[in-house]
Write a structure and sequence with these properties.
By secondary structure, the chain is an alpha/beta fold. The chain has 8 helices and 9 strands.
């Protein structure tokens, strides 16, 4: 699919990323891997794969996504995990739904009908419910899984948002700023697979505080 680029933040993903890229080969997507130049182990693990590597100037998950969007030159982009938890076979359906509904961004959700997860925990379940509820009440967001960053968006619209959060709070900054800019958002059911290797990089309490703090700031802006 020539008009869509996968943006894959890949900090310390040498165990899983080669498998993810091998699975992606049959889909023929443009792939941008975003990581820091010091992550030599991950870089070496994918040296036999034909992908575009973008080196971060700074650090952080949000910073990686911002770098990926700024370096994306296709009509659409998709944020995609390097740990194997996202199913690439869902991308085509996400994009079709987005186009039919004339959306600017579509967010995959584990909490819609016919959706689910093999990797969710009680802590992430509760956290997602709380933050999605805050998004619905205070920002009128029709997103049922706001912390799940499996999404497709129009590249030109994303670049208008002036995203700035370098940590995990970017996952709420993007939809809230898009809503404030009168862009059209929607949800679609998805199933999260068990990650191939490694642990979640999100610290539930530290990153939860950062996300809540940023939502408060955005509410009063």
């Amino acid at each position: 699919m020539k008009n869509l680029t996968l943006i894959i933040p890949a900090k310390n993903e040498s165990e899983s990323l080669p498998t993810v890229l091998s699975e992606l080969k049959k889909f023929n997507y443009n792939v941008n891997i975003v990581l820091h130049s010091s992550d030599t182990k991950t870089i070496q693990s994918i040296e036999n794969h034909k992908v575009n590597i973008i080196y971060q100037k700074n650090l952080g998950y949000g910073d990686a996504i911002i770098e990926g969007i700024n370096n994306c030159h296709t009509e659409y982009f998709c944020i995609f995990n390097a740990d194997g938890s996202f199913n690439p076979s869902e991308i085509n359906n996400m994009l079709k739904s987005m186009q039919i509904r004339q959306l600017d961004f579509i967010f995959a959700s584990r909490y819609e009908a016919n959706a689910g997860s093999d990797d969710d925990t009680i802590i992430t379940l509760i956290g997602n419910f709380i933050f999605s509820y805050i998004g619905k009440i205070f920002f009128k967001l029709n997103i049922s899984d706001i912390l799940y960053t499996y999404l497709i968006g129009k590249t030109d619209q994303a670049k208008k948002l002036n995203l700035s959060q370098k940590d995990f709070s970017l996952c709420v900054e993007l939809p809230i700023k898009a809503k404030k800019n009168m862009m059209k958002l929607g949800c679609i059911n998805a199933f999260e697979r068990k990650r191939i290797a490694g642990k979640k990089k999100v610290n539930a309490f530290r990153d939860g505080f950062l996300i809540l703090n940023h939502m408060i700031k955005l509410f009063f802006k």
